[in-house]
Structure formats: C-alpha cells, structure tokens
Amino acid sequence: MAAEIKRLGMKARVTITLKNGVLDPQGRAIQSALGGLGFEGVGDVRAGKVIELELAEGTSAEAIDEMCRKLLANTVMENYRVEML
Amino acid sequence: MKAAVIVFPGSNCDRDLAVAIEAVTGAKPVMVWHGDAELPAGVDLIGVPGGFSFGDYLRSGAMSARAPVMRAVAAAAEQGRAVLGICNGFQILTEAGMLPGALMRNAGLDFVCRDVALDVANSQTMFTSLYGAGERISVPVAHHDGNYFADDATLDALEGEGRVVFRYAENVNGSARDIAGIVNARGNVLGMMPHPERAMEPALGGTDGRRLFEGLVGALVGA
Fold first, then answer.
1. Which domains does chain B have, with CATH numbers?
2. Which of A35, A71, B47, B156 is deepest in the core (most CB within 10 A)?
3. Active-site residue among B13, B34, B87, B143?
C-alpha cells in the first residue's frame, strides 16, 4: 500500500556547502575536468548539495534551522543556508 | 565478558567483527538491529561495524547516527562501556557526536583498499595496551570517506590529550595530522578507519589487529 503523500503548503530550500578552507576533492576534480574539456579560466570549484523540503504551513524558522543542525548539515565541515520558496 | 555488534542496513563488516570478538572472548556477541532502542543487559563492549549503512545517504554514517539504537550506545558509553567503531562505525560515531571531527571524501578521490602501515600513537589506552609505544603495524583499510577533518583547536586538543591513537605512516586519504584513529576524552570510545578485524589470521594476510581485541578484552575482563 502506497503511503499517502500530503501536499503541504510551505517549501524551503536548504543549500549545503563545505566551509571555507575545507578541501573539496570533488570540486577540484570538477575543475580539472572542465580544464580537460578546454574551458579556460575556471578558478576554484566548490561542490555542495541542495535539499528541498515540503513543510506544514506555519513551520517555524527555528524548527527548520534545527533540522539543518541536527541532520541536514554536518556543521563540523559544512555551512547551510535556508531559503523559503 | 559480553559483547554486542550493531547491525545497520548496509553494514558489511558486522560478521567479521563478531568473528574477531568471538575468536578472543570465546563467546558469540549479540547482534543488535539498529531499530532496537535498547542494548542487551550487561554488555561490556559494543562494536559499531564497517560497511555502507543506509547507502551512505546524505553523508557516510549520517542516517545510522540517528538510528534508535545509537541513543542506547551513547548512554552505554556515558556509563563507561567500551565502544569500538571501525570504518563506517567511526563515521557513525563522529556523526553521532560521540567523537569529534568528521570523515570526508578521500583527498585523492579514490576508494582506497589495501594494507597500510600505522603507528600506534598512544599505547596506554584500553584498546592498545598490548602494542608498544610508537610500534608500526600493518592493518587493511577499505574506504572512500576516511579523510579525517577537525578544526585546529580540536586537533590540538586531541594531540595534547593523547587522544590520537593511530596515525597513518603513509597518509592514504588526506587525513589531518595523519590521524587514523581517536578516542573520546574518557578513553572508552575508539573510532578508527583501518580494519583490525581483518587482520586476525596469518592465512588472511596478517595478525596485527588481533592484539587490539586481546588487549581490550583483557582490560574489560580485568576491570
């Protein structure tokens, strides 16, 4: 039985990036691959991730921030930014 | 001595770890499913095994660290029970906040799977008492996310407090200060990327991991 999917009213987009100074080997590989394709002038490349959340209307900014700190981002090495959509 | 090994969906070193513990204690560890909220009563040692739990979704160890059983593991650690996290187990313990820092993608981007030379940086822990100070041993690694990261203040504290237990003699993954394994402040939780449970038998390539289990069990039985 498929779980019922509720359409919720709010949407948030969480963008997670590595902190400055943390080596990003994936970004470096992307930079090198772009160079291999002949694109010149590509400097530092940083890879991150984007997580979009559907949320019940009225979900507080504090609750979303807590979701980020408790699970979505590892604040030892990552920063996060929340945008309401 | 009673041991438990936690099993997550995607663990693949749980049985190796159980066999290694049994080889030294003579008793089969209890295998505990990640969804269980409690550990068997009277457990002295909890193994958090290697593998690719939850498919490494989000970050290696991120999902497992929030599994119900990990609250019980954290509570047991606070009571002084020994916790040994190997490879994905180390990642899970850092994600759970039981050990500082994080394990990032290997600096060379490659999955590294081979024997590596390790230096025993602290032979005074309950896990390493049968090794000599500064002894060089050979233990296999097999990981993609073993690049240990922490801020400088944390690294300085770890070194100052003797909490760096193993260092890579050759840094295979970019780890800060060659760190391969650390303990918590109390010294009863060890996380390490190399696999001592895969270095138990001469026929399987080496025996340098065996003394970790022998020393640990000796410490727990003697306690």
1. 3-222 (3.40.50.880)
2. B47
3. B87
**Residue (of B95, B1, B94, B10) closest to B46 by Cα position:** B1
- B122-161 pLDDT, tens digit each: 999 999 999 999 999 999 999 999 999 999 999 999 999 9
A50 at interface of B, judged by CB pairs closer than 8 A = no
Q: For residue B144, give both structure tokens.
A: 């993609």
| CATH number assigned to the domain with residue range A10-84, chosen from the 4 options 3.20.20.80, 3.30.1280.10, 2.130.10.120, 3.20.20.370 | 3.30.1280.10
**Annotated catalytic, B113?**
no
User: Which amino acid does the sequence have at B82?
Assistant: A
What is the token pair recorded at A18?
């590595």
CB pairs under 8 A between A and B: 36
What ipTM was reported for this prediction?
Answer: 0.86
Please state the pTM of the whole predicted model. 0.93
Which residue in B66, B102, B108 is closest to A76 by CB distance?
A: B102
Rg (CA), chain A: 17
